[in-house]
Design a protein that fits this description.
Structural class: alpha/beta
Number of helices: 7
Radius of gyration: 15 Å
Largest sheet: 6 strands, parallel
Oligomer: single chain
């Protein structure tokens, strides 16, 4: 099975330091939806793995998260794309859970659910914790410079073998080539 793991905020859609709390705040990054559709059309399963600590912080509830994700699904469908599964961690950082990136819990759940070894599976993120979780699970960390990506690159300390791309569309061109 061909699989790609994507972070959501900052990779697929614009990010916000105040969190994406409702569907109106969810705005796709230009080219990201078409990039996901390209993955789908070339035989890749696309899974989203996203920290959503706004739930644990009480900034929004599950209904709001579902409405945001529904907007993303509808926007993807309009360009012929889809998300095959969405995994998220609802916990605040102080919860010390195993599913919150940079820990690899979500990635290990994905591997189990899809019955795949994540060795070399492309994993696209915009933050150090995205890359660290991918590397800890054996996936191929890919940093995009959208969202917090430029800041992440500037801070350094990226996992070994991290690949760098301007945005999701560029990363997908590399993945499918």
């Amino acid at each position: 099975m061909k699989l790609v793991i994507l972070d959501r905020d900052g990779v697929i859609n614009q990010d916000s330091d105040q969190f994406i709390k409702n569907p109106e705040e969810w705005k796709p990054i230009p080219g990201s939806l078409e990039a996901i559709a390209r993955l789908n059309h070339t035989g890749y399963r696309v899974v989203v793995a996203s920290n959503q600590s706004g739930i644990g912080r009480g900034l929004f509830d599950m209904g709001a998260l579902n409405a945001i994700n529904d907007k993303m699904y509808r926007a993807l469908a309009q360009v012929g794309g889809r998300i095959d599964a969405l995994f998220y961690c609802p916990h605040a950082a102080e919860a010390d859970c195993d599913c919150r990136k940079p820990r690899p819990g979500m990635f290990l759940d994905i591997a189990q659910r899809f019955n795949v070894d994540l060795a070399g599976v492309p994993s696209v993120g915009d933050s150090l914790r995205d890359l660290q979780a991918a590397a800890a699970a054996g996936a191929q960390p890919m940093l995009v410079l959208t969202g917090k990506g430029a800041k992440t690159k500037g801070a350094g300390g990226l996992p070994d073998n991290t690949m760098l791309f301007a945005n999701l569309a560029e990363a997908v061109r590399h993945i499918v080539s």
